[in-house]
Amino acid sequence: GLPGSGPGSSASAGQRVAGLLVDILLSGLVAGLFTAPQLPRNWSLVAFAAEYLCFTAAFGQTPGMRLAGVRVVRLDRPAPIGLWRSAVRTLGVVLLVPALIWGADGRCLHDRITGTAVVRTRSAG
What we know:
With 125 residues, the chain is mainly alpha-helical. Helix content is 56%, strand content 8%. It is built from six helices and two strands, in the order H-H-H-E-H-H-H-E. It has helices at 13-35, 43-59, 63-68, 82-95, 97-100, 109-114; strands at 70-74, 116-120. Helix 1 crosses helix 2 and helix 2 runs antiparallel to helix 4. It is globular.
């Protein structure tokens, strides 16, 4: 039920990866503020999980997703994705394996489990 192109269509792999890389960088910087002068090591993962969980539950997108022009939406109705969907999606992204299993429609395993999709917020280009 997603449009074939434009806003609301399935986000490209490039957009998803770009958003993820921005979020990883931001999480590392935030964790580094608390661990300096030491490297943040696993604290970066804790910061990433907290950022991903909170931002997707509250706003439907992380700062990286916003910069990449994508957001997470529910497929069953227009409503926030909520805390449990955000938690399952966060676990899937942190574990990477569910995030790397793609369907023909561009949705990952954690999207299918939670009934969500990552969609474009603006036209390409």
